[in-house]
Amino acid sequence: METLIYLIYSMIGVLVGGLFSVLPGMHVLNFVGIGVFIYLALPLDVLALTMIFLGMLIGYIVVGLIQTTYMGLPDDSTRYFAFPNQKLLMYGRGHEAVVVAGIGAVSAALMLMMLAPLSSTIFPIFRRLTTPHLHWILIGTVTYLLQSEWPKDWGSRAKTRFGRLKDGWASLSAGWAVFFLSMMMGFIIMNISILAPQRAFQNLMPVVVGFFGVSYMLMNLISRAKIPEQKVGNDIYMKKMDFLRGSSSGFLGGMFAAFEPVVTAGPGMKLSAHATGTSGDSQFMISGGAGRFAYYVGGFFFLWVPLLHLTRKALGMITSLMYQPTVESEFWLFMAAIAMGTAFSFILLVFLSKRIAKVITKINFQMLSLILLSVIIGLVWGFSATSDYNPLLLVATILITAGLLFVGFNALLRLIDHLRRRSGWPIYLLAVIGMVLLFFAVETLLLQPGGVIEGIRAMIILTIATGIGLMPLTFRTMWTNTLLGYFFPLMLNMAGLSAGIVVTLGVY
Description:
- Helices cover 77% and strands 0% of the residues.
- By secondary structure, it is mostly helical.
- It has one domain (2-387, 447-505).
- Helix 9 (204-223) runs antiparallel to helix 15, helix 11 (265-276) crosses helix 12 and helix 15 (365-385) crosses helix 16 (391-421).
């Protein structure tokens, strides 16, 4: 009976995580904060909280594929296969793209369950073999990925040799610049306390949202793209070989990224794609879904493996501070929760995708982008600025912030339009200024003055990260360079090479 109750907790987590994952800009660390609120509001033991964490994680991984396809908001793990998904969306096959990627995630769950009986034997051996060599494995991974930033064909045919050389190096140098700027940002944020200590676990949120959320929403607003009518059916076009190659490649890359510290899903899947010769849109989408699942759940899975208890990735590290599995039965409870949670989340994915596909063309896409942009900035402000983690205060802060931002952004867009026509612009200029003043007046009433300062700091980080995140979209470079560069200081620290750089930069 007790086991069934824990499994029900995990299903609740899947439902909450799945519904929140449709919102853009949400990340795993944000779900940890939501889980803490649930833990504080309800009398739960720590094992129940970890089951909720697991459910939220699975819901985020599987149901979150909806936002990647329909709303154009990939994160680091889904950037790898975003373009095939969105290509099918523009062909009216967005639901099919969502289901294909979801099948990849389910395949990764099946492979993880097949690996579970051998995990306590295999992974301790891998750990002993790789630990002495982690520094050069990680730096070698970065070097390979930077070398794989090949020049892109811009369609330009310059007449001079210098012109052709300039065209060839445009995207390549931009990709390296993204890595360098992200690395400098990582050195600063990881060594200087930007947010207050009680908000430290949200330090990564403005960075991730800026890299992958705000930047893409701004491009959506500029591009004025229109989503065509979507075809919703039960037929999925996928070859057996595409399924086998895609799922195995994604699982391999995701587990490599989960097992090695610092490496994220994007680089792991790119390495496995090169190693296995993954090609074609179907293989890329399947491997992306499988790699995403293997990376996030695999990183949490290692904490529960008997005789291993390896803390990898954010969720595993945070959970290990509160709870450590002690008996083998807890490992099998964890695996049962994965099986049930994956099945439930896939059903939820198909159900929501069909409903969204039927209404997405009836929605003003620019207005939707504007609403989503307001929501994700509101989330960053709310989680960063709320003085204490009272759930009601947090929700009120996020809703009021998002509402004021929406009105302000809408007035700003109208101001830009009217400035072009030179008519009526003073009214909209006053509206924008009024929204800014009203925003700070309301937020100061809601929050302590210190909270407002923390929120402003988070907004500065968000703005810088957005600027860096716009570069891959503008120059068609690899998006993996953003988080790869951001976490590169950790790799140098593991190799004992970061101290001199930190002193030189003065960030200590």
